[in-house]
Amino acid sequence: MRRTSALFCAAMMLTSLTAGVVVTSPDGRLVAEVSVDDGVPHYQVMYDGQTAIAESSLGVVTNVGDYTRSMAISDEGEEKQITSVDNQEKIKQHSIHTDARERVITFTQDDKPVMALQLRVSNKDVAFRYMLMPHRGANSCVVTSENTAYRVADNALTFMAPQSKPMTGFARTAPSYETKYSLGEPVGRNGWGFGYTFPCLFEVPNADADKALWIMLSETGTDGGYVGCRLLGGNGGEYRIGFPQEGELNGWGSTSVQMPLPGYTPWRTITIGHTPANIVESTVTWELVEPKYKASRNYADDYGKGMWSWIIGMDSSCNYDEQKRYIDFAAAMGYRSLLVDALWDVQIGRERIAELAKYGKERGVGLYLWYNSNGSWNDAPQSPKHIMNNGTRRKQEMKWMQEIGILGIKVDFFGGDKQPVMQLYEDILSDANDCGLMVIFHGCTLPRGWERMYPNFVASEAVLASENLHFSQGFCDTEARDCGAMYPFTRNTVASMDFGGSALNKYYNANNNRGSRRVTTDVYALATAVLFQSPVQHFALAPNNLTDAPAWAIDFMKAVPTTWDEIRYIDGYPGKYIIMARRSGDKWYIAGVNAMEQPLKQNISLPMFDAKSQVTLYQNGEVKEVKVSRKQTVSIEIPTNGGVVIVQ
Ligand code: CA
Prior knowledge:
There is one protein chain. By secondary structure, the protein is an alpha+beta fold. The chain is built from 17 helices and 36 strands. 55% of the residues are buried. Calcium ion (CA) is lined by residues 178, 442-443, 461, 465, 467.
């Protein structure tokens, strides 16, 4: 499994370092160095003396100037200590603690300052963004490309989701960040020819496990002022930032960025550790962004669990009687919401939706309403459509939703990552806040810091999610490998994830007797309710589960929190298994799943529990009380496609 990277390390040590500008993490282990060679800005990143990102290019090309060559560093900037604490109830950890060092390095071209690099290094993360300055009398520019590259070791293995070709897939709705992660593929490929979606995870194996490196690349702070970027490969260990593809938005709209000067790009983030722990626990995505407006109400009051009928019953379940039955089911479970999916406008109608909203309200169950984001960018036929893409109609619709007491919206089928689409996300979020509505996106881009930037943003899909379990037996068969043991290392580390899972039906069918068959265990369903993080969880439970699922499973699903105070990575390997811990209040939940062909037996160290204290163990289809050992360990066994949960 672990291949040596000694050759790579030796090669890197021979590379002479030009005198550069250095920023070192507070603990001294992570170092970023920026330099200029032959006029080309570069950087490299070292961790514990090892090269993590070898010399890689920086810079931006605009229609005002090419800031990738003929550059010089004119000002190294003063090193500043950045310390702050902010609370965020929507993400993996309640407290976002920033402890980093930063420099703003100024670059000149022909002796004129044209670009600055804001470079920040914490104990886990390197982050940087470009500031472009007014130049040649221009107070605005078009950014046509970035020269930002990342050179990882040639023996690195990748866990990355390919970007799709535009206008492909269901109703020509791709790209929508719904592709499978690679399972330790070598570097040098370029996905399906179009690069990869963020986040991108690399393992640099080492015979000495203490020297292995795990590297996560992502970006944050993207709003309507930029495009969503991707990572381009195809050149050995070198990867580069790519802009959207021409074909997105049905070929309409530029792939470039319109920007005022001075203007900032989003942040590029690199998270590094010797195990995936730093990546799973990092909060860098949210450390670098600020709220863009004030919350119109306290949304946290309405976070929590919910139901949706569509995942089991599909479109035909979106009728008045079935939604009413699901409201009763949600109330019986003590859940806060019901997501009414596509076609409610024709199959239920607005008047009766108002009745359902009232019926739900009397039972403590609020409604989320589904919308098609279109528009004119793809063929997704489901209605309601032509509302969310138009400011006039959107505002009227949201006012109506506010009047009848709707909790939030789920908007689906976006048109890619070009700047007009990023602006649409921001407009929907901001208008929804005016009416106190929370927002979930599906068929969409990766949210990049949005939990903090937009107070009413809840979560996005941007992952191959539970709907595929309904659509395909093949997807069910590899669910543990491609979802449970993968997303906690990748997609879910940088943003809340609306997966819509934790089914207790044996079959994805209303009668629970045919259709695609779930091969994961009931404890797996419980474990992913903890592993997959979103402040609002719409679970794939069905009313029949009240009688046909084990009582311990239903009781667990009634009690499991959706907001968390703390996260702790314990052990795992992407696509094989994961064990991690989340704390909510004073309760710890330890959850694990196993995708390997053999059962996973481990004695795990749980220092959060007192020696000899009692914990509740969900394992092998039963629940029991067990004692923590004197050395604060608990022995667990996770079957293939199974899970484990420990609660105290
Ligand atoms: Ca989808």
